[in-house]
Design goal:
single chain; 322 residues; binds adenosine-5'-diphosphate; binds magnesium ion
């Protein structure tokens, strides 16, 4: 049997050094203790990742760690929250590799510095199944100001940050379904390592009427806004922002745009706002391009419109686990 560190040795060696926040009590207690700040509310979100489902077993562990953290930070960004810290629940197969955990922790370390967050606690267990991890992130918003999916109103405009479809194309490259030549590295990078749009999120206070991060697919996620806001959203297909790498690899036909708008894993922010100027200003603050892609109307559902104004049929708006 290989000599593997015990549960407690794992925590002490790899995770305690990441517990920078005094409230984490150096992972030496049963729970963390967080300060309250007057005039703020705490935003909480969690995302689980399963080997073989959300990442490939031979993906570099530090990238797995960073993606797990970043998808949570992306949720905070979409809510306009400033990140405060996170919890990590890790379930390792019995035959786990300590080097995997070491590289995983190194990835967290790097991103903690990049995004200014600290590990606050977690849990470590064995599992008979594939390696599974869940991160729970906490953030803060000014009282009453969390951006929600509800709130879009008829005549609002619809915006999205960055470019859409790169992560889906990157996954297809990894799976050997798509050839991308010199663009492969960029596209794979976009699927392995999303960029949480934290500065954009906080700049959207007072600008966005509704907001979410695009994880299931642009059209599916806009469908969530349409549903809870009880409005209809139309997206002009030729306004969906495609990167040069995506265009070069997949083209910009209606079929390629449908792919981009339904593939998911983009981790961009989609939001509605009445003012284009204010939305663009927020994009400048956030250091990311913001594109106007459509509008909000009375009604229900989401429609993708072609250049001729006719609806492009979409078989599947986005990813669903079941
Ligand atoms: P319990 O007895 O409640 O299960 P543990 O022994 O699991 O407590 O955890 C001891 C401490 O280590 C706690 O502060 C917990 O938050 C922390 N911890 C355990 N696993 C992790 C992990 N994977 N990441 C961060 N902190 C962890
Ligand atoms: Mg425990």
């Amino acid at each position: 049997m290989a000599d593997r560190p015990s549960e407690f040795a794992l925590i002490a060696r790899y995770f305690a050094p990441l517990a920078r926040d005094p409230g984490a009590l150096a992972l030496g207690d049963d729970a963390a203790l967080l300060e309250n700040y007057a005039g703020t509310q705490t935003v909480v979100t969690t995302d689980a990742l399963v080997a073989g489902v959300h990442f490939l077993a031979d993906d570099p562990p530090h990238l797995v760690a960073q993606k797990a953290l970043r998808v949570n930070l992306s949720d905070l960004a979409a809510k306009g929250a400033a990140p405060a810290g996170y919890l990590l629940a890790l379930s390792l197969p019995q035959d786990f590799d300590a080097a995997w955990v070491e590289d995983f922790a190194a990835g967290l370390q790097e991103d903690q510095q990049r995004f200014g967050v600290s590990l606050l606690g977690g849990d470590t267990t064995a599992t008979p199944g594939p390696l599974t991890l869940a991160i729970t992130a906490l953030g803060r918003v000014p009282q009453g100001r969390m951006l929600q999916r509800r709130g879009a109103r008829p005549d609002d405009l619809v915006f999205v940050s960055g470019s859409i479809g790169d992560a889906g194309a990157g996954l297809a490259v990894l799976q050997g379904k798509l050839k991308a030549a010199e663009h492969a590295q960029y596209l794979i990078g976009r699927t392995r390592l999303p960029t949480p749009r934290l500065d954009l999120g906080t700049a959207l206070h007072g600008v966005a009427t509704a907001s979410l991060d695009v994880s299931d697919g642009l059209l599916a996620d806009l469908g969530h806004i349409a549903e809870v806001s009880q409005v209809r959203i139309t997206v002009e297909s030729e306004r969906v922002p495609l990167s040069p790498a995506f265009r070069a690899t997949c083209g910009e036909t209606p079929a390629a745009i449908v792919h981009a708008a339904t593939a998911g894993d983009d981790y961009e922010i989609a939001f509605t706002a009445p003012s284009e100027a204010a939305a663009q200003e927020a994009g400048k603050h956030g250091g990311v391009a913001v594109s106007r892609i459509g509008r909000v109307e009375a009604g229900q559902g989401v429609a993708l419109l072609g250049a001729d104004g006719h609806e492009i049929p979409v078989a599947r708006a986005g990813f669903s686990h079941f």
